[in-house]
Amino acid sequence: MLQEVIESKLQSAFSPSHLQVLNESYLHNVPPGSESHFKVVVVSEEFEGLRLIARHRKVNATLSEELEEAIHALSIHTFTKQEWVDRNEAEPESVHCKGGDK
What is the DSSP letter of 44? Predict the structure, then answer.
């Protein structure tokens, strides 16, 4: 299962204090059971002192094989522990794709 691969790779790369990998394919106009659209929320000390673009590049590099072969869309949300606390540990809302409820 692709979701498990993503979780494993992000866990190994970032040792996150919080990790959430959501298969959001059902929000899009894809066949039932698809694993093509994901949202990841990663809270890690690895992101301290890094700009958002550098954080995203690290996640993209970690998942480069999956992005090349299987993932159509990846929503990345990266936080330091303090940023996560400041957000009241709330993940960002997902956007429904036009036609996603067909």
Answer: -
